[in-house]
């Protein structure tokens, strides 16, 4: 079996369009000996509009943008790319490959080409399974640096080569082929077919996701119970007091500390406060020390008094 490591760069990615400008790949045998390595540059038929994952900061690709108008279009080069990716004797692999596969899907639709049809592995996902950490993403640069792999970020062929080296390092650490390593961690390959893309998954990841779902459902129940308690307790709210005409809002984390939150709320109601669940409308925002997030930012922008539970109780006693 051969391994095809690939990476894609785009001149711009929009909601339903991904204008590919580079398809880099590194084809190896099962011992990671390079058979082919190429950076296929593509005329994206449009300008370059580059942003980071948040859609704000501009990225700079290590190419001369003005040269791209002289390269063939994706449609012109598609046959070769299909052949590389759809070879039955080749295991396709990328890093965070779901994104690149989606780009291929969008380009095939843009040029009215047949759907790609191949299975794919993901070195990022394999690494996450290997270390048992699914709560955050691991960039190619960070993993490559850890493994001592030097490359030029965002040059497609170099990213593909670094992806290969990352896979090689993980395989050599356990004395397994890439296929065997995927099997060891019970990873199911992603797949694109009929313009539908399914992501890679694994037994460990599905277990992690199920646990997250259970934890979220528990938080939702706790928050709902607090809101029910608040609706009942506010009927006994004092008409006067230190907090008359003041609105109090609780952080989500504090709402989950049921006993503490209920005690603080009763103390607030005893001083004539109202409760709001909209941080941007509150006068007093109660949260734990060190919290962050959008609700805190909204309360701060509102000019609300920010208090921890201890500080709030002290404030009421002043």
Plain-language structure description:
The protein is an alpha/beta fold. It folds into two domains: 2-199, 2-Layer Sandwich (Nucleotidyltransferase, domain 5), CATH 3.30.420.10; 209-317, Rossmann fold (3-Layer(aba) Sandwich), CATH 3.40.50. It is 43% helix and 20% strand. The chain contains eleven helices and 13 strands. The strands form three sheets. A seven-stranded mixed sheet has the order 3-2-1-4-5-7-8. A four-stranded parallel sheet has the order 11-10-12-13, sandwiched between helices. It has a two-stranded antiparallel sheet with strand order 6-9. Helix 7 packs parallel to helix 9. The mean pLDDT is 93.
Helix and strand arrangement:
Blueprint: E1 2-13, E2 18-28, E3 34-41, H1 74-86, E4 90-94, H2 97-110, E5 118-122, H3 123-131, H4 140-147, H5 156-174, H6 178-184, E6 187-188, E7 190-193, E8 196-198, E9 201-202, H7 203-233, E10 247-250, H8 252-256, H9 258-270, E11 274-275, E12 284-286, H10 294-302, E13 305-307, H11 309-317
Parallel strand pairs: 1-4, 4-5, 10-11, 10-12, 12-13
Antiparallel strand pairs: 1-2, 2-3, 5-7, 6-9, 7-8
């Amino acid at each position: 079996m051969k391994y095809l490591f690939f990476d894609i760069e785009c001149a711009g990615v929009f909601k339903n369009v991904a204008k590919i400008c580079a398809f880099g790949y590194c084809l190896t045998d099962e011992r990671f000996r390079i058979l082919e390595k190429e950076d296929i540059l593509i005329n994206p038929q449009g300008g370059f509009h580059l942003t980071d994952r948040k859609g704000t900061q501009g990225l700079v690709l290590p190419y001369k943008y003005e040269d791209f108008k002289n390269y063939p279009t994706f449609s012109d080069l598609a046959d070769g790319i299909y052949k590389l990716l759809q070879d039955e004797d080749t295991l396709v692999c990328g890093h965070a490959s779901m994104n690149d596969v989606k780009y291929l899907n969008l380009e095939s639709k843009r040029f009215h080409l047949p759907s790609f049809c191949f299975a794919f592995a993901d070195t990022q996902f394999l690494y996450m399974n290997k270390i048992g950490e699914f709560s955050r993403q691991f960039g190619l640069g960070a993993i490559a640096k850890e493994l001592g792999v030097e490359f030029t970020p965002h040059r497609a062929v170099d990213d593909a080569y670094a992806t290969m080296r990352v896979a090689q390092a993980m395989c050599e650490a356990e004395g397994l082929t890439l296929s065997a390593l995927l099997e060891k961690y019970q990873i199911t390959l992603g797949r694109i077919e009929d313009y539908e893309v399914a992501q890679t998954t694994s037994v460990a990841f599905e277990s992690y996701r199920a646990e997250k779902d259970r934890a979220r459902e528990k938080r939702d129940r706790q928050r709902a119970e607090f809101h029910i308690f608040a609706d009942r307790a506010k009927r006994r709210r004092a008409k006067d007091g230190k907090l008359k005409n003041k609105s109090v809002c609780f952080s989500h984390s504090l709402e989950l500390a049921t006993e503490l939150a209920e005690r603080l709320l009763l103390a607030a109601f005893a001083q004539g406060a109202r409760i709001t669940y909209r941080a941007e409308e509150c006068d007093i925002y109660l949260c734990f020390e060190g919290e962050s997030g959008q609700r805190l930012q909204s309360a701060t922008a509102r000019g609300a008094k920010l208090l921890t539970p201890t500080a709030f109780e002290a404030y009421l006693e002043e």
